[in-house]
User: Fold this.
Amino acid sequence: MLKLMLIIYINIISFLRLFSSNIKENSNILSELDAKFGDGDHGITMSKIANTIDDVLKESDNLSTKEIFSSISSKISLLGGGAAVPLWAMIFEGLSKPIEGDDISFEIIKKMFMSSLDEIFSISNAKVGDKTMMDCLIPVVEKTSVLDNGDIKHLLEISYKTAIEGAENTKNYAAKFGRAKNSKEKSIGTPDCGAISMSIFFKSFYDAI
Assistant:
């Protein structure tokens, strides 16, 4: 099987559209999970983020790949909503920074993931085991940063499988952030909605390419 060495502009647009669609499709589930120990608005907030992505894509004809991700970040930051708003604004800002042209290479994707993690670390000290999206993002960066075979499809496969595993693992943790932290051990057994959203991001990336 031939290695996928480059993601072209149209595939990036497809990925973002699919991510938006998948978030909207799962918004009720995300809110139901959040309602068990949190504010119950995660699905609503993520739907706002998805709509923002759609709005940027409608006006993307004259935007570069870097500008698309940066614009999504900027517009998300203006939204009202839960804690997901600043976190996803930082994720998209991080994704934008390493991009140099309209197409994305294997090494650039690795840098995009690392940059997103760096941006999140600037506003959060959450780590693996704290029952957050970081239970997905940190392991993804750790695993993809050491890959060197140049195959983007393989990188994205590792990414989404790691993210799904990370989201599943949050069932085993007591919440340490947000309103859910008040429930402590009672939150064990329920996956974190933020981690689920993060896993949807990585699965959408894989499926669209």
